[in-house]
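hiii so um. not sure if this is the right channel but i have a protein structure encoded as tokens and i wanna go backwards to a sequence. like what aa goes where. can anyone help
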């Protein structure tokens, strides 16, 4: 009888340690992936920091995958290779929803939960979207633009048409600019994933005069802002307004120099951190991956988690940098 009591005591201790220590809630064998494109951008390094933080906290594996250059087809291939690994969950930033939506649906059918981050595929069966309210981000940038243009002049946009998050930002700008009859959008340039296209186009446009004179440049993604800013800096074109997107160091430096008027900051760290946390939670509160929650008034998941934006300009750029440095 004594050995039975001893065995029972050891069992109770083992269970107690497991519960108190969190063993069984998380497992180092659980793998989560974030699939994106243009992963060399500083923007995505912020997301990697979020992955690393949640992985260290919960003792799981979280990793970014995807092509270093802008390549929608390569992103699809990377997504397929990740699905083949049968991970615990996938986050994906969708460059081309027409290409990616069938892949997301196939992953869900295979029992792998998928959440979109940064850029959505709303017509897929992904569980939901975590990221920026991109239309509101566009409106935020548009108000900053009008303030500095004094509500008149010609504007050129640099973007990548067809990418959902960028299209939504452009719509947000258009919502606000449509209220100002003296503001005219004279060109929408497709940079095709290469910031150098914005550099070259700005050089061509800067000398234009008369009705073709460009008063303001707006960059809807991260790489173009510093390229346009460099052209303005070299030409000492302080009479032009430049609104950028995101907060790599070169962009912040150009704000300090008075070249970039403002940039719209996102939170890729938060997107990755919250995304993996929500995927991990599904192991303890499982959902049917074959159910559409879009019209369900009793849905256990949201349709959208807004991670927020902020306008960074000369008035708060030092404070913003201090916050970034504290995080490191």
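sure thing!! here u go:
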């Amino acid at each position: 009888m004594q050995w039975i009591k001893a065995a029972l005591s050891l069992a109770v201790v083992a269970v107690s340690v497991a519960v108190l220590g969190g063993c069984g809630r998380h497992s180092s064998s659980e793998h989560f992936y974030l699939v994106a494109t243009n992963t060399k951008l500083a923007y995505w390094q912020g997301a990697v920091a979020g992955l690393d933080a949640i992985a260290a906290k919960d003792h799981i594996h979280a990793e970014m995958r995807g092509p270093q250059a802008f390549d929608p087809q390569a992103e699809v291939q990377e997504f397929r290779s990740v699905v083949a690994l049968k991970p615990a969950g996938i986050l994906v930033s969708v460059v081309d929803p027409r290409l990616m939506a069938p892949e997301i649906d196939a992953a869900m059918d295979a029992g792998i939960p998928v959440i979109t981050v940064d850029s959505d595929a709303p017509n897929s069966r992904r569980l939901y979207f975590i990221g920026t309210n991109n239309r509101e981000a566009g409106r935020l940038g548009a108000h900053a633009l009008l303030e500095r243009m004094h509500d008149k002049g010609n504007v050129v946009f640099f973007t990548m048409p067809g990418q959902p998050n960028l299209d939504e930002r452009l719509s947000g700008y258009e919502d606000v600019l449509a209220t100002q009859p003296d503001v005219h959008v004279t060109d929408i340039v497709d940079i095709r994933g290469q910031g150098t296209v914005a550099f070259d186009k700005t050089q061509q446009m800067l000398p234009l005069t008369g009705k073709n004179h460009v008063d303001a440049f707006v960059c809807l993604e991260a790489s173009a802002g510093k390229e346009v800013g460099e052209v303005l800096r070299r030409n000492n074109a302080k009479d032009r307004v430049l609104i950028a997107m995101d907060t790599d160091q070169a962009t912040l430096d150009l704000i300090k120099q008075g070249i970039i008027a403002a940039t719209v900051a996102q939170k890729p760290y938060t997107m990755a951190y919250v995304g993996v946390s929500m995927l991990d939670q599904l192991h303890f509160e499982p959902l049917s991956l074959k159910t559409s929650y879009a019209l369900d008034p009793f849905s256990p998941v949201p349709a959208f988690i807004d991670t927020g934006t902020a306008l960074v300009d000369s008035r708060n750029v030092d404070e913003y940098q201090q916050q970034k440095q504290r995080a490191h």
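oh and The longest strand covers residues 183-190.
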